[in-house]
Amino acid sequence: MPERPAFQKTGCKSCHFVGFGHGLSCETCHGGNSNKLTKRAAHASLVSNPASPQDMTKVCGTCHAREVERAIRSSHFTLNSEIQKTWQAFFPNETMDFEGLQRIATLPWKPMSPQRLVGDLLVRRCLRCHPYTSGDGYAMTHRKTGCAACHRIHETTSNTHAPPLANPQILQGFQDALDMKKVADERCLACHYANFVGWDYYGRFEKDYEEDYRAPLEHGRISLRSYGVEWHEMTPDVHRRAGMVCTDCHVLGPCQEEKGQKMQLSCVDCHISREDGGSSEAIGRSIGVNRVFDERMARFRGPVMQLDRLGHRPLDWKRVSCAACHAVWSVQDMGRSLTLQENPLWEEWSYLMVQGSSEVEEIVSYYLLKQGFWQPFEPGMEIAGSMAVWRDRNECTQGISLKPCMKNKFTDECGIGVWFEAFLQRRWAPVPLEIDATGRVSVMRHILDLELFYVNKENQTVINGLKPVSGRMQPYTPHTIGKADWFRSREVERMLKSQ
Hints:
The structure is a single chain. Helices cover about 25% and strands about 15% of the residues. The protein is of the alpha+beta class. It has a 4-stranded mixed sheet, covered by helices on one side. The protein has a 3-stranded antiparallel sheet with strand order 11-12-15. Helix 6 packs across helix 7 and helix 16 (about 360-370) packs across helix 17. The longest helix is centred in the first third of the chain and has 13 residues, at about 115-125.
């Protein structure tokens, strides 16, 4: 018997509201057959996410071949620079890339070694912002993959939730928000949150993980957290207060990235007058490299630097970073410990279950509820109930039971044990200055101040306190720019004179 038609009209838009399109038919990117009258027939050979890493080359690349090719090679996709920096901090004489990391991390039959431990940390805990993953399960961090991780190509909802089409202002708002060429700050912050550079641009500093720091405090409840963590409200960057968004300075994204190419505006691009030598040649780039750069420089022309001041002189530009004097505050997370436990004592982690990882929180909640550690109306009930995604995202078959697990973020395969994180202390001041490897006075951060532990199924500590042998303090550019700090300026002056 033929399947009974569910509707008497055809076309994707008879069921789905599409907020933005390319002027193409739905089938061009998604496949399927919109002329069919049943869901099963219409969805045959459907590509649900054509912008995913698996399909972006053959779908998006049909029209955007150059952009897709660049994106796949970019640092946002491969994360090779982050992988290599972390790997060489532990193993200075070794090199590592994306492919090599996969080979090391997927060797469950071999005894745990320091290399395997660092590899497992990277692929299961650290690199969850890779475009191959859909991010954490929090409201503001869950996203599409591939091209759609940054570009919100369109929004699709049920027709019952479509905006009133008769209202042109609402339609224009949808069109602006979903413009493929625009990357909204919320897309950047879906990865650059929780004390990563970018979150500080909005004046946010992540609170500690301990239960005592949760807010607001309500009896028997924990409020749902849009980014998985609460934060202190700090002073936002002066450019944020002026209304500038991420892409106003970060002009070229991963799909336009080329080796050696200028990717973003520097401070001197906008804070030097043309009369004082602020031409394209003076700031070290060729005229006409990208028309967008010249447009942004004209649009965001800021207060002019006084070129006779120490640090402002052209000869100082490669000797001192602007943030060394102008960063209002900086993120200083110190003593970060990461523990892989194959057989965790779940009750011990209930106090530290807020981990900035929805995956870890879901696993802890699952086992605490299963063991009867939590009762109705206690905090864990609400967390577990609000994170139902583990049922279809984080389960794996082990014998005859289904259990949530931490997955390899690239292969989607289950791994043994859970990675827990804690800090010795978290501070935003003072702003530490050092001379970096290039000889430049820079703001430094304890980004690789790590200590790794591995506890096996028998609760024996096999690897105890594995630390990097080099590079714990790394230069970085805090996005907290404001009026220069007088005392820090004097320190910069002393450091420059001593060189």
